[in-house]
């Protein structure tokens, strides 16, 4: 079907303000040359760059400026994702340019079918929209040349509509121009587009390209089938590509190489392209060939792309696999009954989360079949050391296993034979503070089998490197076996999803998918039209309808087709709140009868950080900590982490906190004068207490200043409220995660060098106990319970198995395996080196075994009473109290009580059949502390039975004197006292 009826047709608009230039031909070459009198413009490709640049440059070409005299010319480079446009100009000609317009940018927004917003004032001048089907627009001082269509736009002084401002708040003050009524916008959107402003005398004053997501949403929003759809007789393909000029599907028999067995031209209906083939396609592979104008190169490109809705892939994502996820051969035995075999829990307040990387779990576990190590099937080895460890955690109470990214990501080859390996025996002989280990690790870090996976390529397909065969459907079957096996040992499975960014962009990159299919739509762009990179690379735009739809469809696929039990959203604050609420609603609407999924049991949480272009609702109401209150969606509580450990991951590494010795055991870092340091400690205790009460905005407590305040009135050092939640399950408490140093490492860094490893181990347990015994959802990084070390690496995402090793035999915690990789750690090597070199820092096996037992005991204590897992804000406010508060507080100790009611008596309802009152005392001091509270007199409190039976002889020295209400707590110890019913 032809885009234009003819050069002289009025197909776009039935009125005379449209004009046409002479027709031009479409060139199939990736290098286009356009000859027009004395002007020659070359567009040529360059190597892919992940960071497109909008550098300052002259932004217009004078008709006399093109020259072939190299001795007197300079080169102007238009930097973009995939090409450089080079134009030769003399220096004199550059200085004579008369205005600052440029087609290298996209500073105007086509926001709906009838309006264009542009931050330009034309005064009594005029504005025109230009289009070229073959991407031949050229900007001159006189305007635009090379166009097929020219359309006059009229100013609209009423401003942008409310719904547009809600979607694009960052352009709310832009000037508005009306698109003429009856314009065939759908065909124009397949062209290179530009708007140009003219002065009253007809001279150009500005020019720019357009950003199209608003109008695409307005005209092409679609809710029908996408991806490969299997019926009894046919396989149908559907792809949303409204700006594409042609779409073909190339069908292959093999995962790589060879010629297509069929090339099908898809037909378009309202932006959706489709084709229908026989069921013989099942098991074949395909790619799309999309001919589309790409703003990053200013060319009509032929892009080879996978299906954005791919559910299977060949190795390294070369081709999309036509896989039917409902095929019986891809379902493990008993798969359909799994929904009724899921581990039970009655409330999200009962959730506890253990964060784990798939490769870490088994790559170093020699009790796992070598063919399964580092992959999905390792979780089916029911008697491996790692599985035995997970069973211990579950038996103590742990409910959820959080897996770091498991979708198809970049930077790890799917085919294991491509990986490079280190001589680990040789590395083990090197000194613990040597820089040789990191040098060898980083030399192959992009060619080994390790990466955390926060570099998405396709969200809806399991990662091939974790499968026994990355081609075919193995990854689907093995992923399902992993979920089923974990469920059967009592653990629900959480997926780490990364919808905030994509690894690739542009028309040619191997890892680019969405930006090939609908260029400029899925990736969020700034006011110049350049891709935003605040999340690392290539921020996605969930505020756009079809981007949001893709996220929702993808998450439902994982929930229904893979039966996962929860989702952790990476950089959730960069996703719109609306999208998160839709995800929550869609998941919780799933039912056992209709979907084989108990949707209301799926827990959602994520990183609600508020930064970058989305900060303060800059792109709409985003899913930040403060915006999510009242939704039932959890967000990580960094206030707890920073108060417990000290400082922040972005501050000085020696800043101390409640657990790491602030005020009591200085480490040499200048925290200020004594009165300031003491105030910092007292404020940290306030922050921790608010967090332990579920980080509830309305929880009332007494601050260290003696004031009755709400959690939202307790402020961080930068003036933000500590509390942001309206119910406990909206707070995910943690002190460590995959990001930054492990808990043991950060304690070893922040505490004074002279303290013993025994003391550091106790502090590790103390920090973990604060998380385990708080209201809200506790979150633990895998290995913290084993004193896990990464040799002080602060960002081990690409540090290989060497720095990320886990040892479920408990022989070693991986401390002192060399200086951590130079890139993120070198500036701290002077602090790190003496610690690694000191043999007294390294825990022994007995330390690790004790740490594991202590952690299991914490879980047992948490799950011994529902009082540690209160479900509502009212319940927390009524039952939780903090006793060491006000100006006379004893520094370094936090004392919390939780009260229960009694059956048949007025007042609080009875929740716990075993304990009627609980007191927890956290002593971070290096010495024993006695704390007395008249409110806690005459109780029949005893040390918790779990602690009485533990091998920790220190905690057994904890004491309670009922006559005075005094508690004596040993150094660096958490003591739990309980009042049993019937005593």
From TrEMBL:
Keywords: Hydrolase
Span of domain Alpha-1,6-glucosidases pullulanase-type C-terminal: 810-979
InterPro entries: GH (IPR017853), Glyco_hydro_b (IPR013780), Ig-like_fold (IPR013783), Ig_E-set (IPR014756), Pullul_strch (IPR011839), Pullul_strch_C (IPR024561), Pullulanase_N2 (IPR040671)
Pullulanase N2 domain boundaries: 106-218
Keyword Hydrolase: yes
Phosphoprotein listed as a keyword: no
Gene Ontology molecular function: pullulanase activity
CDD domains tied to this protein: AmyAc_Pullulanase_LD-like, E_set_Pullulanase
GO biological process, one term: carbohydrate metabolic process
Family: Belongs to the glycosyl hydrolase 13 family.
Protein name as it appears in the record: Glycoside hydrolase
Organism expressing this protein natively: Macleaya cordata
């Amino acid at each position: 079907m032809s885009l234009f009826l003819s050069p002289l047709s009025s197909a776009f608009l039935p009125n005379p303000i449209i004009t046409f230039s002479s027709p031009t031909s479409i060139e199939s070459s990736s290098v286009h040359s356009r000859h027009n009198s004395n002007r020659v413009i070359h567009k040529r490709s360059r190597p892919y760059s992940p960071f497109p640049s909008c550098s300052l440059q002259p932004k217009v070409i004078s008709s006399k400026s093109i020259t072939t005299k190299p001795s007197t010319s300079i080169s102007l480079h238009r930097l973009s994702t995939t090409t450089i446009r080079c134009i030769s100009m003399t220096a004199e000609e550059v200085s004579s340019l008369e205005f600052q317009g440029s087609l290298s940018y996209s500073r105007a927004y086509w926001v709906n079918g009838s309006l264009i917003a542009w931050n330009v004032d034309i005064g009594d001048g005029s504005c025109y929209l230009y289009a070229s089907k073959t991407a031949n627009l050229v900007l001159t001082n006189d305007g635009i040349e090379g166009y097929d269509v020219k359309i006059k736009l009229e100013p609209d002084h009423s401003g942008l509509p409310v719904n547009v401002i809600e979607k694009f708040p960052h352009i709310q003050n832009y000037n508005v121009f009306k698109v003429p009524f009856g314009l065939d916008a759908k065909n124009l959107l397949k062209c290179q587009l530009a708007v140009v402003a003219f002065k009253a005398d007809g001279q150009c004053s500005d020019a720019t390209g357009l950003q199209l997501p608003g109008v695409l949403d307005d005209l092409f929003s679609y809710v029908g089938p996408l991806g490969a759809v299997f019926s009894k007789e046919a396989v149908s393909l559907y792809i949303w590509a409204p700006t594409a000029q042609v779409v073909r599907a190339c069908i292959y028999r093999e995962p790589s190489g060879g010629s297509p067995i069929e090339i099908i031209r898809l037909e378009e209906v309202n932006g959706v392209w489709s084709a229908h083939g026989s069921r013989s396609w099942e098991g074949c592979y395909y790619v799309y060939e999309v001919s589309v104008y790409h703003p990053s190169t200013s060319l009509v490109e032929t892009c080879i792309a996978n299906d954005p809705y791919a559910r299977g892939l060949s190795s390294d994502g070369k081709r999309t696999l036509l896989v039917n996820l409902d095929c019986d051969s891809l379902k493990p035995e008993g798969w359909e009954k799994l929904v009724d075999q899921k581990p039970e829990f009655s409330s999200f307040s009962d959730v506890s989360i253990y964060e784990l990387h798939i490769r870490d779990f088994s790559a170093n576990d020699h009790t796992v079949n070598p063919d399964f190590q580092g992959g999905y099937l390792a979780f089916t080895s029911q008697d491996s050391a790692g599985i035995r460890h997970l069973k211990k955690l579950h038996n103590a109470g742990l409910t959820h296993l959080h897996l770091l990214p498991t979708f198809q990501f970049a930077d790890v080859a799917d085919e294991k034979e491509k990986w490079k390996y280190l001589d680990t025996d040789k590395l083990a002989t090197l000194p613990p503070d040597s820089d040789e280990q990191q040098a060898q690790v980083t030399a192959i870090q992009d060619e080994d089998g390790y990466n955390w996976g926060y570099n998405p390529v396709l969200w809806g397909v399991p990662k091939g490197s974790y499968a026994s065969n990355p081609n075919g459907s193995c990854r689907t079957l093995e992923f399902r076996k992993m979920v089923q096996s974990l469920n059967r040992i009592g653990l629900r499975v959480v997926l780490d999803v990364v919808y905030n960014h994509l690894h690739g962009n542009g028309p040619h990159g191997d890892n680019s998918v969405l930006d090939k299919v609908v260029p400029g739509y899925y990736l969020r762009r700034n006011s110049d039209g350049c891709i935003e990179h605040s999340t690392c690379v290539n921020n996605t735009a969930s505020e756009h309808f079809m981007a949001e739809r893709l996220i929702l469809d993808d998450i439902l696929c994982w929930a229904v087709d893979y039966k996962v039990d929860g989702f952790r959203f990476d950089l959730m604050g960069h996703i719109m709140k609306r999208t998160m609420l839709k995800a929550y609603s869609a998941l919780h609407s799933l039912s056992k009868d209709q979907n084989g999924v108990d949707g209301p049991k799926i827990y959602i949480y994520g990183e609600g950080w508020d930064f970058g272009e989305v900060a303060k609702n800059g792109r709409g109401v985003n899913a930040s900590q403060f915006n999510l209150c009242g939704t039932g969606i959890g967000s990580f509580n960094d206030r707890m982490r920073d108060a417990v450990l000290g400082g922040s991951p972005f501050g000085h590494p020696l800043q101390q906190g409640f657990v790491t010795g602030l005020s009591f055991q200085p480490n040499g870092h200048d925290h200020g004068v004594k009165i300031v340091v003491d105030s910092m400690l007292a404020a940290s205790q306030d922050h921790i207490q608010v967090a332990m009460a579920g980080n509830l905005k309305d929880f009332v407590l007494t601050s260290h200043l003696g004031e009755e305040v709400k959690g939202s009135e307790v402020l961080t050092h930068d003036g933000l409220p500590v509390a942001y939640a309206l119910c406990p399950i909206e707070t995910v408490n943690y002190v460590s995660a995959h990001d930054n140093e492990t808990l043991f490492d950060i304690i070893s860094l922040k505490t004074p060098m002279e303290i013993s490893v025994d003391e550091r181990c106790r502090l590790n347990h103390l920090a973990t106990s604060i998380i385990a015994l708080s209201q809200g959802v506790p979150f633990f990084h895998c290995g913290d319970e084993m004193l896990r070390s990464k040799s002080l690496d602060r960002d081990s995402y690409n540090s290989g198995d060497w720095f990320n090793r886990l040892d479920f035999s408990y022989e070693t915690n991986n401390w002192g395996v060399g200086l951590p990789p130079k890139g993120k750690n070198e500036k701290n090597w002077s602090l790190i080196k003496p610690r690694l070199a000191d043999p007294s820092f390294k825990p022994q096996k007995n330390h690790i075994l004790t740490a594991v037992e202590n952690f299991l005991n914490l879980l047992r204590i948490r799950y011994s009473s529902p009082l540690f897992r209160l479900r509502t804000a009212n319940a927390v406010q009524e039952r939780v109290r903090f006793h060491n508060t006000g100006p006379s507080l004893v520094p370094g100790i936090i004392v919390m009580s939780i009260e229960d009611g009694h059956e048949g008596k007025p007042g609080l309802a009875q929740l716990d059949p075993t304990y009627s009152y609980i007191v927890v005392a956290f002593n971070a001091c290096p010495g024993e502390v006695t704390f007395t509270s008249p409110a806690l007199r005459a109780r029949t409190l005893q040390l918790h039975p779990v602690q009485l039976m533990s091998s920790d002889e220190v905690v057994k020295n904890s004491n309670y004197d009922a006559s005075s209400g005094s508690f004596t707590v040993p150094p660096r110890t958490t003591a739990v006292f309980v009042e049993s019913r019937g005593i």
